[in-house]
UniProtKB/TrEMBL annotation:
Natural source organism: Jingyaoa shaoxingensis
Gene3D superfamilies: Winged helix-like DNA-binding domain superfamily/Winged helix DNA-binding domain (1.10.10.10)
Name recorded for this polypeptide: LysR family transcriptional regulator
Record keywords: DNA-binding, Transcription, Transcription regulation
PROSITE patterns named among the record's database cross-references: HTH_LYSR
Taxonomic lineage of the native organism: Bacteria, Bacillati, Bacillota, Clostridia, Lachnospirales
UniProt similarity note: Belongs to the LysR transcriptional regulatory family.
Entry keyword Transmembrane helix: no
PANTHER family in the record: HCA OPERON TRANSCRIPTIONAL ACTIVATOR HCAR (PTHR30346:SF0), TRANSCRIPTIONAL DUAL REGULATOR HCAR-RELATED (PTHR30346)
Domain HTH lysR-type: 1-58
Origin superkingdom: Bacteria
Amino acid sequence: MTIQNLRYIIEIARCHSISKAAKSLFMTQSAISNAVKETEAELGIQIFNRTSHGVTLTFDGEDFLPYCKEIVAKMDYIQNRYQNRSSARMNFSVSCQYLPFAVRAYRIFLSALFSLFHLFHKKQVSSCLFSLLHR
């Protein structure tokens, strides 16, 4: 059983038809049908009742579908959360009642950040950290 098979099952249940699901997924009907049969054989259940008018979920299918949706949703969440990490924006904010202290802290932070960035290329990060920590 694969995540892709679960996606197929969700789409078939949504469309109430293997052929309509195949069209919406840009696949052949036989490929989707084989994927579902493979999943059914692996689990030992029948997910769909197949008729000439489409498909309906069996009792086991009704029970299985919410788990499919949950698994697929969690996989999508994980992929979105961790695959797009390199393009994630980093935010920095300061909230303080005593503004001069906040401004001074922000200046020190930026100064340290820029110093580390420039010294990193010269491999002098450790000495920079030492000097910043002992101000």
